[in-house]
Amino acid sequence: MPEQQLDRPEQRLLAAAETLGAGMAGLIAVVFLGLPIFAIIERAFEKTDFFDVISSSVVTEALRVSLMTTAVSLAIIVVVGTPLAYVLSRYRFPGHAVVDTLIDLPIVLPPAVGGLGLLMAFGRRGILGEWLDDAGVEIAFTTTAVIMAQVFVASPFYIRAAKAGFDAVDRDLENVAYTLGSSRSGAFLRVAVPVAAPSLMAGAVMAWARALGEFGATIMFAGSLPGETQTVPLAVYRSLETGIDVPLALSTLLIGVSFAVLLTFRLLAGRGALTL
Amino acid sequence: MRSNLVRVALATTALLSFVMLLTACGGDDDATATPSASPTNQPSTVNATPTGPTPTRTPVNVSIEEEITVFAASSLTEAFTQIAEDYEAAFPGIGINVVFAGSQQLRTQLEQGAEADVLATADEEQMDLAASSGLVSGFRFTFARNRLVIIVPDENEAGLTEPEDLAQPGVKVVIGGENVPVGRYGREFLDAASQQSDFGGDFADAVLGNVVSEASNVREIVSAVQLGEVDAGIVYVTDVTQSVSGDVSTIEIPDDLNPEARYPIALTHLGAPKDNAQGFIEYVMSEAGQATLGLFGFAPGVP
Q1: Are the Cβ atoms of B13 and A229 closer than 8 angstroms?
Q2: Which of A202, B132, B247, B284 has CB 3.0 to 4.6 Å from B289, enough for a Cys bridge?
Q3: Which tens digits make up the pLDDT trace of B132-180?
Q4: CA A131/CA B260 separation, integer angstroms
Q5: Predicted ipTM of the assembly
Q6: Cα–Cα distance between B281 and B84 in angstroms, integer?
Q7: Domain count, chain A
Q8: What is d(CA A162, CA B16) in angstroms, rounded to the nearest whole number?
Q9: Of B144, B130, B132, B145, nearest to B267 (Cα)?
Q10: Residue B222 and residue A233 in contact, taking contact as beta carbons nearer than 8 Å
C-alpha cells in the first residue's frame, strides 16, 4: 500500500472504520468468552469459602476419579492412537477414507449418542457386552465405563493431530533410516515419533482436556456414583442441586487446571506445534 | 487494491457489530417478554398445545388466551401430560407447557431464574426449599400420594425375589440421589428395614454398598433397569407404566416399611399471577383431576 494513499480523506475514514471494526469484533469475542470464566471465579471466591469447599469430600473424590480416569484414558489413547495415526498417514488402503471419517465422527456426534452406542455395544445386553457378561466381565456403571467413554470422545483429537504430525515428517528421513537397516517399527519409533513429537504432545493435551470435560457419554454409560464414577463435570452437575458453593469451587479448579496446562504447553512447545 | 478489500471487510464488520449489538438488545427485550422460555439442561419438555395458539384475540376477556408453564416431578410425566391435555380441551385457547425433571432440579432451575407458573414436586422437602427461597407461595395442596416398589429386569439375572435380596453381594442397584425425592424415600425404606430382624441391622449399608449409580430423577432408574444394565432399582409404583411393565418385574415392599410419598403443588411467585395457573391447580385437585391421577396409579391427595 503506497504511503500517499493514506492522505486521501476516504482512505483515512476507511482506516478508522477498519480499526473500529477489528476492535469491536475483538472486544465482543473477548467479553463473550471471558465473562463466564471470570464470573465463575469471582463468585467462587466471593460467595463461598473456597478453600473449605475444595477440601470437602465431594470435591476431593471427584478430583481423584477425574485425574485417575483421564490419566488411564490418555495412556490408552496414545498407545493405540499413535500407530493408527502413523498407518493412516503413511499407507493408502481400501476404506482409508471411511476409517478416517469414522475416527472423526465422535468429534461431531453428541456425547449422549456416544454413551448410548457404548451401552448398546458393551452394556449387559449389548453386542459384545452379552459375551462379556457371560464371561463375568461387567463394564457399564463401573470406573472402566468412565474410561471407555473418555477414550471414545477424546481419541479423535489425538489421532487427528498425530496424523497431521506424521504427514509433515520428511519421508527422506525415514528412507535414510531404512537404508541404514532400520525396520519399519524402528523407523516409526526412532524417526517418525521423535520428529512428530510436538504434534503428538499437542494432540495429547487436547485429548486430555476433552477427556477431563467429558460428561454426556459418561453419565449414560457409567452413571454417577461419588468416588467410583462421578468425575468433576458430573459432580458439578449433580452438586448444583444442593447449592452453588461446590459447583463454583469445582468449576474454578477445572478452569485453573485447564488454563494452566494449555498455557504451559503453549509457552513450552510454542511455535508451529499448535497447528490444530 | 487487495488490501482495500480487506479494509472494506473490516469496515463492514464494524457496521455489522453495531447492528448485532442493537438486535441483541432488541432480542433480549423480546425474550424477557415471553414467559415460556425454557432453560437448558431440561430432560424433557412436553408442549401439550394441540394446534398451537389460536390467532383470534378477544379484548373483552384477557384470560381467554394464556400460556402457562408447569414444572412437575418426573414421576408425574404421564399423569400431568394427560391432565394438561384435558385442561386444554376444557378451556380452548389455554396452553399448558409441562416441564418434567427431578424435583430438586426443578427447584434449582427456578432458583437460577427459570420461569414457571406452577411447581409440583414429589416431596415436601423440595417444596419447603423452594418456599424458603421465596419461589413459591406459602399456600399449597397435597394433590397425590405414592408408594415405592422394587423393579428388576424381566430376565432377572440376579434372581431377586424379595426385598431382602437387594443386600446380596454383587447385586447392582440404582437408587435416587440423596436429595432426589425417590432417593430420599428409598433411603427411608432402607433405614426402616434395617430396624427389622428379618432384614438385619446392616441391610441399609449392604444395599447402599451395592449401589452403582445415583440417579437425578426416577425415570433414569427405570430406564437403567428396563435396559437390563442393572439388577434392581427402587422407584414409585406409578413408574411401572404400561410401556415399562413388559420389560420389568416388581418386588413389593411391605406396607409398614414403605414410606408414603406426598406430592405438593403450589403457585410460583414469579411474574404476574395468571388466572389459569390457579385454575390448573384447582383442576388437579378437582374430581376429574384426581380421577386422572388415580388412573395412573396415584393415591388421592389430601383435600
Answers
A1: no
A2: B284
A3: 989 998 789 999 999 999 999 999 989 999 999 999 999 999 999 999 9
A4: 41
A5: 0.75
A6: 11
A7: 2
A8: 39
A9: B130
A10: no
In which residue are the cell numbers 483515512 written?
A: A12
Q: Which residues of B touch A241 (CB under 8 A)?
A: 102, 104-105, 108, 177, 179-180, 216
Residues A34 and A67 in one domain: no
Predicted TM-score (pTM) of the model is 0.78
Are residues A41 and A63 both part of a single domain? no
If you measure CA to CA, which chain A residue comes closest to B103?
A241
- Claim to verify: residue A133 and residue A207 sit in the same structural domain: yes
Q: How confident is the model at residue A240 (pLDDT cuts 50, 70, 90)?
A: confident
Q: What is the pLDDT of residue B33?
A: 37
Is B292 exposed, middle or buried (CB count within 10 Å of its CB: 0-12, 13-18, 19+)? Answer: buried
Q: What is the pLDDT of residue B209?
A: 95
Q: What is the pLDDT of residue A179?
A: 87
Number of other residues whose CB lies within 10 A of the CB of residue B47: 15
The residue type found at A243 is G
A32 & A153 share domain:
no
As a whole number, mean pLDDT of residues A10-21 equals: 87
Q: Where do the domains of chain B lie, and which CATH numbers do they carry?
A: 44-145+263-302 (3.40.190.10), 148-257 (3.40.190.10)
Partners of residue B229 in chain A, C-beta under 8 Å: 119, 123-125, 140-141
Distance from CA of B17 to the nearest CA of A (A): 6
Clarify whether residues A108 and A235 are in a common domain: yes
From B17, B102, B211, residue closest to A225, measured CB to CB:
B211
**Containing structural domain, residue A9:** 1-47
What single-letter amino acid sits at A40?
I
pLDDT tens digits, A250-265: 999 999 988 888 887 7
